[in-house]
Specification:
Length: about 400
């Protein structure tokens, strides 16, 4: 099998997710286009870079991302850093002729996203591929939902509602990581998790054209953690810890209109006690409905309302398996469930196929840039209280 060398920038939670996905991709998909070789891992903390190198089998480690970009042997770069440096690293990698997969949100600001988009457009002319990590749209059940919608069996789509609820920052003792600082994150819940819910909605209903939003911050300051590792609320700091202000959002809600003519809503918060990684989708059409929840990600609920007899109308459960999209990764029979690891492997498989085929995946930098435009409109609407058109 063909081999391609990978450089990873950012050895935290998402760096681990990328490496697991790279490793599993050729194991789960028999037609995987290439076998990834872990060349260099970069992290600004030397001890983290060295530990990651040993655990995941990289040949080298470094603390300067330029060492990854300037290495002629590296063909693929994964960008898993805080949001504010995505643009500089990704654009440099694309300009150097390397394929790039970057974690979401695409950038901390729309201006930074535009830099990445422009670099990706130029690189695409040379067959270079860019991709943003919106993996939840690649859940087999979500892809099956898209097939059903496009088949017309739900009729005309009238309403799409998505949610993404977490609780890891609901405790005021959760430390102030980079995710709570506008200078590094760009936004809070909006960029961190609401973008996933927005992406799923746009994948199924088309781009959002108009919206009105509410953005709230509930905990104005948090204790400062020591070191740069993002602890994601898994460690609580005591009452004597030094505190600094939070200048990003804890919760975002929006009503929206889609280019398809549908309307809908998106809700996201990291303050929902009892909800860990709760993503939901509901789609209504003139002939039927679909619902889905990430906590049962292998199940798609479908109601073909107009086709059911009175007294028998309701949702039926589709258990995704080999007959559904990305069936190679869903094991042997429906109900032999997949999880987050396999989902990231599907994402990496789509990335690899795009590299092999010389085309841009559905979540290319153009998609990421458009999503950042939606986020810009959300923040503008929250300030004015008015409906805003997405640029």
């Amino acid at each position: 099998m063909k081999k391609m060398n990978v450089g990873l920038v950012g050895a935290g939670f998402m760096g681990k997710a990328h490496c697991v996905a790279y490793s599993n991709m050729p194991k789960l998909f028999p037609d995987a286009p290439f076998f990834p070789v872990f060349k260099t891992v970069c992290d600004i903390v030397p001890e983290i870079a060295e530990d990651f190198k040993e655990r995941f089998g990289f040949e080298k480690c470094c603390t300067d991302w330029h060492d990854v970009i300037n290495d002629p042997d590296i063909q693929i770069v994964s960008v898993c850093t805080p949001n504010n440096v995505h643009a500089e690293i990704a654009a440099a990698a694309l300009n150097a002729g390397k394929h790039v997969i970057c974690e979401k949100p695409m950038a901390a600001t729309v201006d930074q996203a535009k830099i990445m988009f422009d670099a990706a457009e130029e690189a695409a002319k040379k067959g270079i591929v860019s991709m943003v990590g919106y993996q939840y749209r690649r859940v087999p059940a979500i892809d099956e939902a898209k097939k059903i919608i496009e088949s017309g069996r739900l009729g005309e789509i009238t309403n799409v509602r998505t949610q993404y609820l977490q609780s890891w920052s609901a405790d005021p003792a959760s430390p102030l990581s980079w995710r709570f600082v506008k200078a590094t994150a760009g936004s809070g819940t909006l960029g961190d998790i609401a973008t996933h819910a927005i992406d799923i909605a746009q994948y199924l209903a088309g781009n959002i054209t108009d919206l009105v939003s509410i953005v709230k911050t509930y905990i104005p300051e948090r204790p400062v953690q020591e070191g740069g590792v993002d602890l994601l609320g898994t460690v609580k700091l005591g009452p004597d810890a030094r505190k600094e202000p939070v200048d990003v959002d804890d919760e975002v809600s929006l009503l929206c209109k889609y280019e398809s003519g549908a309307v809908g809503s998106v809700e996201a918060t990291r303050m929902a006690w009892g909800r860990n990684n709760y993503i939901t989708l509901e789609v209504h059409g003139t002939r039927g409905s679909i619902s889905w929840c990430y906590e049962r990600l292998n199940e798609l609920n479908v109601c073909y309302g107009m086709d059911d007899q009175d007294g028998e109308r309701g949702f039926k459960v589709i258990y995704t398996g080999p007959a559904n999209p990305h069936g190679d990764v869903t094991w042997n029979i429906p109900g032999m469930n997949i999880g987050y690891g396999e989902l990231k492997a599907i994402e990496m498989y789509e990335f690899a196929k795009a590299i092999e085929g010389g085309y841009q995946p559905t979540t290319c930098f153009r998609t990421g840039y458009q999503l950042d435009k939606v986020c810009e409109a959300v923040l503008k609407s929250a300030e004015t209280g008015a409906w805003v058109k997405v640029d």
